[in-house]
Specification:
This protein is mainly alpha-helical. It has helices at residues 12-36, 45-62, 71-86, 89-92, 99-119.
Length: 127
């Protein structure tokens, strides 16, 4: 019998790509779920997921444990920035209520409802 990989065994490179793709798809699904729930802004989920992954990955190049901020502080700030880049919370607060802003919010809500209806997504109870 020949030593090494059998033809049916995936290579290490293939395994690494498969794991990477699974992680990216999982993160994109998280963003899509947040959009469907109305918690995240209407964004391209793939672009949002890759942007957040890039922001997290790039920190390995510039973070220094001897720098002015601890790993926990930097992690907290990156997480906060990532979440706030997606959330609808600030966008939906009416600082100066006007009919046009209220109508825009209602249209956004109707769009979310229509997407969930056509995608077969269920509705959860309000918090």
């Amino acid at each position: 019998m020949q030593s090494g990989l059998l033809e049916s065994e995936p290579t290490r490179d293939f395994n690494c790509r498969a794991v990477h793709e699974t992680r990216v798809i999982g993160r994109r699904k998280c963003v899509e779920f947040g959009i469907e729930q109305g918690e995240f802004r209407e964004l391209d989920a793939k672009v949002a997921a890759f942007s957040i992954i890039g922001m997290c990955n790039w920190s390995a190049w510039w973070f220094s444990p001897t720098g002015p901020r601890s790993l926990e502080q930097v992690s907290e700030q990156i997480g906060d920035m990532a979440l706030h880049s997606l959330q609808t919370e600030n966008e939906r607060q009416l600082r100066e209520p006007s009919a046009s802003k209220v109508i825009r919010f209602l249209r956004d809500d109707i769009d979310i409802l229509e997407r969930r209806r056509t995608s077969g997504g269920g509705f959860s109870e309000p918090r």
